[in-house]
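look at this fold:
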Amino acid sequence: MVIKNSVKSSFQIQRGKLASIPQINKEEFLHFYHRIFKETNFHFQAFLKNNTSPASLKSTKNSEFHEDILEKHAIQATYLILNKIFSYYVIRSQIYHQFGRSISKLYDPSLFVPFSLQLQKNFAQMSSEYEFAPIFHENNWDRGYTFPEGLESSLITFINHFTTFDITQLSDDFIAELFQKLIPIKNRKALGQIYTPGDIAELMAELCIRKPDDVILDPACGCGTLLRKAYDQKKKLAQASSLSLSHTQLLDQIWGVEVDEFPAHLAMMTLAYLDLSQITHVAGVLLEDFMQMGPMEKYIVRTKDLSSGKLLTREMPHKFDVIFANPPYIKQELIPNKKLMLKNLPLFASYRSIQNQSQRLSGQIPKVKLPLTAKTDYYGFFLWYSTYFLRENGMICFIIPNKWMDVKYGENIKEFLLSNYKILALIGFTKNVFQEAQVSTVIILAQKCSCKRERDSNIVKFLSLLDNSSRKSIHDIVYSKTPDSIVLQLKSQSYVFNNQENLHRTFVSQNKLVSDEKWSLKYLFQSKFAQILQKVPLIPMHNQEITSVVGGIKTGANDFYFPSSFSQTTFNIESQFLVPGIKSGRSLPKSFIVSRSDCVFLNIPQSIILEQFPGLQSYIHDGEQVKSYPKRPSIKWKPWYRIPPSHQDSPDILFLRHIDKNFRAIWNQLGCIVADGVRGLSIHDSTHILFYLGVCNSTFFYWQAHMMGRWEGQGDLQLLVYELKKFQIPDIRLIPAKNIQKVESSMKEIIDKTPRNSKSLKISSSLKKKLDFAVLACLKLDEHYNLLFNETQSMEAHRLNKKF
């Protein structure tokens, strides 16, 4: 390789002069870096605001300037250019120390070349001659701009600072963590990054990296926190095995993929500076969208050997021993290029499933179907696609939101895990790991296994960490042999609780795990009441013999089918077509009995001549010609304006689809027709309607709502129809008459003594306790009241505080 001649700085003319350079004060350097960052960011904001060429700084809808977009771009631009300058001088110093070669100063005022052009030229030279991309990859913020005086002055001050000390004095740890420490939490969302805490990243690396020669991939590497911990873990394992692995050898087995330039930039720097005593020719960080990485492409990073000048290439392996990640927390409706992703992933996975070259040449490509629904959040697709990058017996370790464990779309994720992995552990936390994220998380640790017998015989460990001290013992617990006493218990029961101080442990035979169960609440929360309930004869609430769950009508146009008072008056709709209705939860009365309703439902008989009813006819005409209701794809009725009686839901007991802490069930005595926002229970024999009303208002029912309902991110609890159908209720046919009467009299007393039209309609604690004991007596569980009450209170507190 030919190294071009360059201007020698006073810092690098002779090795002997390095000794005269003052020792660096790390705190002063941090303070200086932070000051320069603030100055540079301020000038960048002004620069970008006045520079109209980057179209992304303008709204797509109009030409108005958006301050939040400006802030995001200015922060990224500031970090990118300061990091490039920092990296330039690190590499410059390393090359001098190891090869005695000088690289020109980044800026030399004596050349009379504009500052921005000198930066462009020297960054491009560093990239082309030493291949440190993506650190020196050209981007929008250093391409063809002439920086204003204030911005240029701040950058020159920063550059000049590097002539005052030997940058190689900085420790590896200091440099690796420097950039994350300097990013304020308030800026992290603007940068699109949620960083993995160091102790969590270390735990994940220890759990999944078992051999010093493991080849590792992080498909969403962000700023490189997990990659760094992988490096540390491999180095520790090598030392324990008396192996000598150089910095380059360690990096050769570590790969990261990142779609965004800024975090990829940081990831490269994190890896490059883990050992300042050695030059990092290149680190395996690819600036790619993992979801679009096709199996036929070769993904290569390049470098040059500084001693021989030869071009070196590293191709990303087709398969890995370990894949671990903290993938993006993006909801399904915000997934980028979603349609293309759903189309490509099955094809990509099919080609990655090819076992050998002969299979490829013969064209016998296995067809892989994508089992995940379009409602799956982004991390689910990362987990699924990563499987096809993993070798047999390879380890996967992801930290993701725990929502998938308890929701409908998560059933497909669970089924996929059960069919492709030995699930070694699912590790939950009682507090949010990521303070700036509105989610709770779980670590998945699993080993790829195509043998069903091995998977079925595996024992899954659900671990819930109650505080930080218990993290130290996780590795030993995961990989230690399951005690014989627990194995024996699992032969006669589905799961076993076995807790230690500050750590809850649940052992489950993998062949007993069911995908439609709520794993988080059942196994991580460890409901002891749920265990007791397994021995009680209960029936599904949707048994269709005694009771049936009703979801409310999905009309497609509630405003039409539940006409407002204004519409009734304006069109003079004939009264015989208006029956009591409940359009939404706001229409529910503040009482335990619906005896009147201000809302109405449009009930049109089948055999009717519209011309005979001008009010109704004009209302329908307005819906057709003005509102265009028939054109809505959500309206499926024929004729469009008539909902047949068989689809008019009028359950006997009502409750809201979304509930907070004041849950209540209401008797629909008036027989109102209800819309989708209301859930309900139809009683086939109304003789004991007070009994079922009592059950639905009890803590037992509210406990089930937490165990089976959907916990939303803001503390909301949602009851979907398919979940309600799994609720369990006492079989009234098996209950003594006196116990039934106690429930009914307790519920009647609540109705009589609770003030009507009160804001919350909250039942007094004494009356609620009396009802709870009566309901539990029907199950012969009244002695477990305190357990039920405490578990329900705990779940409610966790939900409202968003800790689960």
The radius of gyration is 33 Å. Residues 1-21, 56-64 have pLDDT under 50 and may be disordered.
